[in-house]
Amino acid sequence: MKRTTIFNLLILLSFTTTIPTTLLKKLKGSVDHNADVTWTIVGAGPAGIAVVGLLLDLGVDGRTITWLDPEFNIGRLGKYYYHVPGNAKAIDYISFINQCHTFQEYSSPALESLRMHDPNEFCTLAVIISPLQDITHYLRGKVVARKNRITRLSFENEEWQVALNNDMQFSSHNVVLATGSHPQTLNYPCKEEVPLDLALDKQILAKLVERDETIALVGGSHSAVLILKYLYELDIQRIINFFKYPIIYYYDMGEGNPTNPNGLRGTVAKWAYTILEKQQPPNIMRIQNTPTSRSSWLPVCDKIIYAIGYERNEIPLLNSNSQQLDYDSSTGVISPRLFGIGIAFPQQATDETDSPRNLIGLLDFMTYAQHIIPEWMKKYPHKHLLRFENLFTIALL
Known about the structure:
Layout: H1 3-14, H2 21-25, E1 37-42, H3 46-57, E2 65-68, H4 75-80, E3 85-89, H5 90-98, H6 109-115, E4 122-124, H7 126-140, E5 144-146, E6 150-156, E7 159-164, E8 169-177, E9 181-183, H8 196-199, H9 202-208, E10 214-218, H10 222-233, E11 238-243, H11 266-277, E12 284-288, H12 291-297, E13 303-306, E14 310-312, E15 333-335, E16 338-340, E17 347-350, E18 356-359, H13 362-376, E19 393-395
Parallel strand pairs: 1-2, 1-8, 2-5, 8-16, 10-11, 10-13, 11-12
Antiparallel strand pairs: 3-4, 6-7, 6-19, 7-8, 9-14, 15-16, 17-18
Helix pairs in contact: 3-7, 3-13, 5-13, 6-7, 10-11
């Protein structure tokens, strides 16, 4: 059997069978190249953590992996959302950890606490953030981790040239962008905006709003309804919720309501169904988000919160708009040996109505990474790379 055939077979088997550790360590996961490093992973959120762990699972030498992040604090998740109720059960977080062999090499009180959690409980994100912080610390010792921000990425001489904010430069054979996203905003006229990142923490939100104020809340999905719940519990005088679509639920709430994979889950779903829709609190006004309704009601609002989703973090691309950066949503390929994953480059699927939806849960990232990383590790023929020379030049601000 040819060597390349054996190599591909080993990659396939690594996700379907148990391979002896000695055999896994022989699997280098790279092709012959002249770059300084084989893999550069940009971003240390959940998706970046999954990529680093799985590359190590496949036997890639940690010395050939460079991991970049300015903070190494689990991205936006760790920075802002520690106290936020999650919309996934603990079993999803446990599965995320258990599906990577390298993660099993490390133990900590936070990891053991997660494994002992009620698997069917919807819990706060702290339950997974603390274990991920411990795993990040462990992984940083197994690869070349640099606490820097990437400032430029260009394709030259069939390799990716990487520049950092400390003026360091190096070449990389493969680059993975796990660069994350940030909350979308609009420019509706209002006196003051409360950022979504802060509004999602109830304790912080309580310090940013007053009980006698009128708060405008734009949006109707999980984040919006969670903040609506917070404002209700804080006894805000009046809350005006501008929404486009009616509330949908992931589960049947007991009365044969329509269900949807993108619907509300957990404590947020229970509150929305039993309090918001059944009791219709008098201090909450839900109105269709139209120009007419905005012109009528925004003038009486003291503050506004946008909970309308997330958009990709800035990745300026010469002669292109980074928000429209094309990638294959089934493989993560942006261009040869440049890949994207995570909330900025999610896998897409269709629901039962054939409507597209992005898979952005932590377990979604791990499952997707297990599927596509072996494909990333395959060799691209040089004839397919030459046409990309000088075509892709990325400057990250």
